[in-house]
Amino acid sequence: MNDLLKGMPTPAELRQMSRSEQKSVVKMVRQFLLETVSQTGGHLSSCLGAVELTVALHAVFNTPEDRLIWDVGHQAYPHKILTGRGPLFPRLRIKDGLSGFLKRDESPYDSFGAGHSSTSISAALGMAVAAKLGHKSREVVAIIGDGAMTAGLAYEALNNGGVLDANLLVILNDNEMSISPNVGAVSQYLTRILSGRFYNTVREGAGQALSFVPPLRELAKKAEEGVKGLVTPGTLFEEMGFHYFGPIDGHDLDALIQTLENLKKIRGPRLLHIITKKGKGYAPAEQDPCGYHGVTPFNRMDGKMAKKPASAVSYTQVFGDWLCDKGAAEKQLVAITPAMREGSGLVRFEQLFPDRYFDVGIAEQHAVTFAAGLACDGIHPVVAIYSTFLQRAYDQLLHDVAIQNLPVLFAVDRAGLVGADGATHQGAFDMAYARCIPNLVIMAPKDEQEMRDMLNTGFAYQGPALVRYPRGNGRGLTLNKDLSRQVPIGKAEVLREGKELAILAFGTRAAAAMVAGAALDATVVNMRFVKPLDTELLTSLAQSHRAFLTVEEGARMGGAGSAVAEFLLNEGVVCPLRLLGLPDIFIEQGDAGQWLADLGLDAAGIEKSGGELLALLARSPSGA
């Protein structure tokens, strides 16, 4: 690895190299990627597919003065390697190490931070307009995948960009894959046109054949443009005001560099369409690009990843099993995902009930309003979505589902800390941003059995319901799969009777709270519901206890603990109260358990905070 880094050029050095030397850099970057990511884990197949493109971009454009805006960041490892961050790769996606995504404060070459999809064209358009207003000749390039083109935000930016006539180059990196297999009419259109014999025949021969006859040269030109308008994928982009070029082979470095050099000489909105292969250069990833999208450490020789112990069952798998069981019993149940079939545990459901499975692409807003429309006419949708991605559909959750009080169940995965993906993916905010929405029931299970029971509860509720659950494995419980089991809405569960101090735990922090409660002889309550709160139990506890400690794996500001504080204040209860949760910062990448310990949310941290409250009571016997 060190030998590879010694020969790795800076972007400025890359621009001075011969073409043969630049091709050697392509091989070095791909080899370095395999050597490092096989040890650290991370995003692999999309990065392998973008190596030639990355080398070409830095070879042609004067980075970082010229701006490269990468969409999502899944394909950005080659960019990080070429911009001086290769030595940091052994600490990829761990605490205080290298981020797996783009970060402006990590490198001047990261022009725009990205972790969510489909933002690059909007951001690049803003930079292009800024350059124009500042009278700068800077080049601005947005790189976006075909999967990200299923999101409305990309088309909003294209629509605006064509009108503004800004000096912007958009590169559509088309590998026919998002995280899950790509879906949608645009994807099907591109694939159908590019693979069609008619398009390729016309593209290769028609204009040339007609141009041999001198009097017909102008007619040939018009005929070629007319046919192109009928059959090429550029029609859509041309109509939006972008000059369309391509498609070209995204692994042909000669063609890439020459085309980019030519496009630099053209002003205005341009779109270059390139075709790449996800996983390029590594056979296991080429054969299974979805499986190698995000990898754990693996054997580079055979591609085999370490398997989880057979007894380990994730919350995602528990949800997927429940969905299949419930789907068999409830014919009106449909499942919706915004391009996260594997990540949300929907593979088996799609196989069993293909007519009731809907992958809408990277289109979270549409997913939620689509669910609302289904619910209006008697279908009962379950929207499987990550906490961080539900943020993108907040208005739809509020305006289209909650105001109309529609029976839509949100299965919110990755709630709480997610580990290696870091700040852009932490499920920190769902309790805070959802708690203020009327009609919405919000549940946080303590374990996988309670999660199943809450999913039953949410599905039976005749309004919008949200069940939030974490990334990772459950406690290994033997589950009772009775689909009639429910949790009484708004009722908490006392896990331990104690004295003076009441620890109120929301979600999976209940287990750590139990350990702390035993050490402190405190009452421990599994609150279960963020909304509605069990106000009857809180009133009773306020009469029998002198202090409260709330614990949640979510943003402390406006979260579940804040709901408790609001209730006690409104009831005139005056007592020591401490809220434990995620602080008012963005939590970066790193092991979730380590972060919980550092933030005082593990058993030791809860015990420490509880001990401080008890010490305060000892100094003030009246509890005032």
TrEMBL record:
UniProt keywords, alphabetically: Isoprene biosynthesis, Magnesium, Metal-binding, Thiamine biosynthesis, Thiamine pyrophosphate, Transferase
SMART domains membership: Transket_pyr
E.C. designation(s): 2.2.1.7
Any Gene Ontology CC annotation: cytosol
Molecular functions (GO terms): 1-deoxy-D-xylulose-5-phosphate synthase activity; magnesium ion binding; thiamine pyrophosphate binding
Reaction it catalyzes: D-glyceraldehyde 3-phosphate + pyruvate + H(+) = 1-deoxy-D-xylulose 5-phosphate + CO2
Segments traversing the membrane: none
Residue sites binding Mg(2+) per the record: D146, N175
Function: Catalyzes the acyloin condensation reaction between C atoms 2 and 3 of pyruvate and glyceraldehyde 3-phosphate to yield 1-deoxy-D-xylulose-5-phosphate (DXP).
NCBIfam families the UniProt entry points to: dxs, PRK05444.2-2
Name of the protein: 1-deoxy-D-xylulose-5-phosphate synthase
Phylogenetic classification of the source organism: Bacteria, Pseudomonadati, Pseudomonadota, Acidithiobacillia, Acidithiobacillales
